[in-house]
Design brief:
Length: about 120
C-alpha cells in the first residue's frame, strides 16, 4: 500500500510558477514509477510527467521546457516545478505511484490538488 498526499496547488497568474509536492507513505526508492497527471473539467485525465526508479523521465509535449519533475528519496517526496504557466494548465493535478511485484502491478493515486491559472 502507498498513500500519496499532494500539496502546493493554488491560483496563479499566467506566466507564473508553482511547485507541487507529493509525499509518499513509503520509501519512493522502492516504487517503480511516480508521476503527475491532470484532469481539466470535461476532459480525460492525462499524463503530465513520469519519473521511473531507473531514472527515465517522460513529459507531455504540452509541458516540455516548462515543467520539471524531480524526486527526493530522503524525503520520500516527488515534486513538479511548473513555470511559465498558461490558462490551459488549469486542472486538478494528481500524484500517481506504480508498484510492480512479480506479475502484480498496483496503481495508487493521491486526492488531487487544484491548479488554476487565471488573471
Amino acid at each position: 500500500q502507498v498513500q500519496l498526499a499532494e500539496s502546493g496547488g493554488g491560483l496563479v497568474q499566467p506566466g507564473g510558477s508553482l511547485r507541487l509536492s507529493c509525499a509518499a507513505s513509503r520509501r519512493i526508492a522502492s516504487i517503480n514509477a511516480m508521476g503527475w497527471y491532470r484532469q481539466a473539467p470535461g476532459k480525460q485525465r492525462e499524463s503530465v510527467a513520469v519519473i521511473s526508479s531507473g531514472g527515465p523521465i517522460n513529459y507531455a509535449d504540452s509541458v516540455k521546457g516548462r515543467f520539471t519533475i524531480s524526486r527526493d528519496n530522503a524525503k520520500n517526496t516527488v515534486y513538479l516545478q511548473m513555470n511559465s504557466l498558461k490558462p490551459e494548465d488549469t486542472a486538478v493535478y494528481y500524484c500517481n505511484a506504480i508498484v510492480i511485484a512479480g506479475i502484480s502491478r498496483a496503481n495508487y493515486w493521491g486526492q488531487g490538488t487544484q491548479v488554476t491559472v487565471s488573471s
